[in-house]
Please model this.
Amino acid sequence: MILELFLLLAAGLFSIGLYGALSQQSIVMIMMGIELMIGAVIVAAAALWHFLAPAAASGQVIVVAAVVAMAVEMAMGFAVTTAIFRARRVDMTDMAEDLKG
Model:
């Protein structure tokens, strides 16, 4: 019963994140949607590991490593976004087309 609730929570978070990532044009909002999707995957993985092997610590270690990687990824993403904004005043995905070349 509790596993289904956590998986439902993860599905809801993933859906909201997917909508946010696909419907926004601001780079920061897209990154926030991706962050929600990654968080949903982590919630689902943690719930499954707790359901399958509640005594094993390996699942908890992987979840903590994933959360740390997620935090580092977002910090690097915001740093790159801030650098691009300061250099070219680009904050929307439409305006970032000239960065290709």
Summary: The radius of gyration is 17 Å. Helices lie at 2-23, 27-52, 58-88.
